[in-house]
Design brief:
The chain is 52% helix and 4% strand. The protein is built from ten helices and three strands, in the order ααααααβααββαα. α1 packs across α2, α6 crosses α8 and α6 crosses α10. This is DUF7779 domain-containing protein.
């Protein structure tokens, strides 16, 4: 059931068994280029892969951070639970990555915001409070959402505007869509780490009204 969520982790437990390749990537990356990597470093490696939603970019940067700071996967998970994503970026990024994972998303959000007159960021902030595995597309056309956008932006906003903003987020890979069997029941998905990064950068004074808007929209539809 789609609803408000309070925990930062959103990767479904059932997907852990499908993370083998990415967990193995973590193992290789933190092996410190030795044939027999220190076994204790790999404690909770599979759980870390699940925490990071099997996102290769995030796993690669996490592995580099673990190596830089001489941590274990279990130790990184503890930091992940209590620190902001921006505080967990390695000093030197792995491979040819140009920016920390949170900064990569921030640049995409800025681009989406510029293309939609500020609507895209608001919709992503609302989506960050809902189930990452699927939320109804028509939720973002609800009167509660368009009214909140109008109040934030000081300009008229209708369902066409929010539809176009969702499409912009999709083009920039900040969201994805799944088409259910029932006509008109498409679901919007947002990676749990994108949700977390969005919540961490949302001003405190906006948090309550965003939560109320998300709840009101669920009731409305």
């Amino acid at each position: 059931m789609t609803g408000l969520v309070g925990a930062p982790r959103g990767a479904p437990t059932k997907r852990v068994r499908n993370c083998g390749l990415f967990a193995f990537t973590v193992v290789l990356a933190i092996g410190n280029e030795r044939s027999d990597p220190e076994a204790h470093r790999l404690d909770e490696a599979a759980q870390l892969a699940a925490d990071l939603g099997c996102l290769p970019l995030a796993l690669a940067q996490a592995a580099t951070y673990i190596q830089d700071q001489d941590l274990t996967c279990a130790g990184y998970r503890k930091r992940l639970a209590r620190r902001r994503l921006t505080a967990l970026s390695p000093h030197l990024l792995p491979d040819d990555q140009a920016t920390p994972v949170a900064d990569t998303w921030a640049l995409s959000v800025e681009l989406a915001d510029a293309a939609t007159g500020g609507i895209a960021r608001i919709l992503l902030q609302i989506a960050a409070l809902l189930d990452p595995n699927g939320m109804p597309h028509n939720l973002f056309a609800a009167q509660a959402v368009t009214a909140y956008c109008e109040q934030r932006l000081g300009q008229p906003v209708d369902a066409d505007d929010t539809h176009d903003a969702i499409r912009t987020l999709h083009r920039l890979s900040l969201t994805s869509s799944t088409q259910n069997t029932t006509p008109g029941s498409a679901s919007l998905r947002v990676h749990a780490l994108v949700q977390r990064a969005t919540r961490e950068t949302t001003p405190d004074e906006q948090q309550r009204l965003l939560a109320v808007t998300a709840a009101d929209s669920l009731v409305e539809i």
